[in-house]
Specification:
This protein is α/β, with parallel strands linked by helices. The strands form two sheets. Strands 1, 2, 3, 4, 5, 11 and 12 form a seven-stranded mixed sheet that branches. A five-stranded mixed sheet has the order 8-7-9-6-10.
């Protein structure tokens, strides 16, 4: 490669308002580099989890649940995590239901590698998953094709409009049970990328998040195109939930929380091997 020619990094993330917000400065080239350029690919998180098995993208959003399966190929980036600090994916039903009644029920989920599904199984392993696109779980619940829906993304703020009832907030449950925030999604970088390029990607990712937080109005206006029918105040609330100081840098608490989550999964037999989380900056 000619030293004057920047390396193209294919960067994959989900078409959500929070991801769009944190990647805004990269997507619009507010943050630039002489070493790398970014080409953005948008796919749902379960597709990204599956493609990470093959190391398809240089930089990819993944679920923390997926990390043990791709840790041979990817390392976690300290910037870009989506963290539920006392809130998170929501288990909802058509009628009021106690958490103790969930056992044995059919649950619509967005994918078996999502962190929401891992947390759900840690809380209650005896349920029947019905996998479907994340934006169809409430439709399936409304049609009574399932007993419960595990809601991720913006549906966490809009499910009540459909008359659904909250059974459990998994982020609240995790915080109450273990005293830690629930790590949901992360950005991961191919291990095969050179240290110089990896460091540059980490710098740019962090600066992109900081730019969005420091220029919220323009970043939110950009993110609104991915807000899936949410009005601006609700989209702003959702972005604020999942793009925050933990997103800028995971610090010490998020690696601890991620390790706890994955160890719980391994101890319960939900993850085939123990994996040490590893973050780069």
């Amino acid at each position: 490669m000619n030293p004057a020619t920047p390396l193209e990094i294919v960067c994959a993330h989900s078409p959500d308002s929070d991801d769009a917000f944190m990647f805004y400065a990269l997507a619009t080239r507010k943050i630039r580099s002489r070493l790398v350029t970014f080409r953005h690919v948008l796919e749902d998180i379960e597709s990204l989890n599956r493609k990470a098995f093959e190391g398809q993208y240089h930089l990819s959003a993944i679920s923390y649940h997926a990390y043990p399966y791709v840790a041979d190929k990817y390392v976690l980036m300290a910037s870009g995590s989506s963290i539920g600090d006392g809130y998170g994916p929501m288990l909802v039903a058509n009628t009021p239901m106690a958490p103790e009644e969930v056992k044995g029920k059919r649950v619509a989920i967005a994918g078996k590698l999502t962190t929401s599904w891992l947390a759900m199984q840690i809380m209650q392993p005896d349920v029947v998953p019905v996998v479907m696109p994340f934006d169809k779980v409430l439709d399936a619940l409304k049609d009574k094709a399932v007993d419960l829906a595990l809601v991720i993304h913006e549906g966490q703020l809009t499910y009540s409009r459909g008359g659904f009832h909250l059974v459990t907030d998994l982020g609240r449950w995790f915080k109450q049970e273990y005293g830690l925030p629930l790590p949901l999604g992360a950005n991961a970088l191919l291990r095969s990328i050179s240290p110089e390029i990896s460091a540059e990607c980490c710098r740019m990712m962090k600066e992109s998040i900081e730019y969005a937080l420091n220029n919220q109005e323009e970043a939110l206006n950009y993110a609104m195109q991915f807000a899936r029918d949410m009005e601006q105040p609700l989209a702003e609330k959702f972005v604020g939930m999942y793009v925050n100081h933990f997103t800028v840098d995971a610090g010490d608490i998020i690696p601890k929380a991620a390790q706890k989550l994955l160890d719980l999964g391994w101890e319960a037999g939900l993850i085939p091997h123990r994996t040490e989380v590893e973050f780069i900056r």
